[in-house]
Amino acid sequence: MRLDVITIFPEYLAPLDLSLVGKARERGQLDVRVHDLRQWTHDRHHTVDDTPYGGGPGMVMKPEPWGEALDQLLDGARAEGRAEEPTLVVPTPSGAPFTQELAVELSGRPWLVFTPARYEGIDRRVVEEYASRLNVREVSIGDYVLAGGEAPVLVMVEAVARLLPGVLGNAESHRDDSFAPGAMERLLEGPVYTKPPSWRERDVPEVLLSGHHGRVARWRRDQALARTASHRPDLLAGIGSAELDRADREKLCELGWVESDGRFWPPGDRVEE
Ligand code: 6GU
Description:
Elements: E1 2-7, H1 19-26, E2 31-36, E3 49-50, E4 60-61, H2 63-79, E5 87-97, H3 100-107, E6 111-114, H4 124-131, E7 135-140, H5 150-161, H6 172-175, E8 198-199, E9 202-203, H7 206-209, H8 213-231, H9 233-236, H10 246-254, E10 258-260, E11 263-265
Parallel strand pairs: 1-2, 1-6, 5-6, 5-7
Antiparallel strand pairs: 3-4, 8-9, 10-11
The protein binds 6-chloroguanine.
């Protein structure tokens, strides 16, 4: 997979040399290219921003450097005989949520171009221009505001890279991911333990030492249900009883959830008359 990042802070992307992404690059599984947007400016001050039309606070990124940068990447690839067009990923707090589902979709593309912005964002015409020719995704990583899109790019690249074939040591590692798509496997992962069996008088739960695979699996599922019910009740609310086995239903009842019309609802959610 090829990844391009166009930014006014190329140094911000230095972590892409490290760890999982860095190793994938060394192995040739990822071709990452970080570009300084200012190389596509032509004035002495390498200006990338200007005041917003219509007034208001802050500055807006000018369209011309982005246009020249993107055109050069696209033309260069065409000249090299690359058949595929990139997917353009535009980080913005007003984008659609970045989810595991989107990470999976992006991991199936041959080429992603990220355009992290600073200031109040990029002149709207840039997205319009490229959306007429490319697959463009405007994406937010959560409901909070960051100073720029570089940290979101690091987040998204890590989420995508670990899904590429051969990047994680073993493909099994994806299977239990919280949020990995799959029948009802939208539970948060429960706690994990390793040696020693007792640390500061805190013991590893007995069942994990028991060697009973069935009991271990049931315990883990109960922990996942409890954690999801507590931290992300939205993931469970309205879940159909048919997706739950008897022990799941008992666990949810124990946690105060209420079954009504074949669905489960959080404690305190009034069932309307
Ligand atoms: Cl993608 N950018 C910025 N600036 N803030 C964000 C974000 C993106 N996602 C959440 N907050």
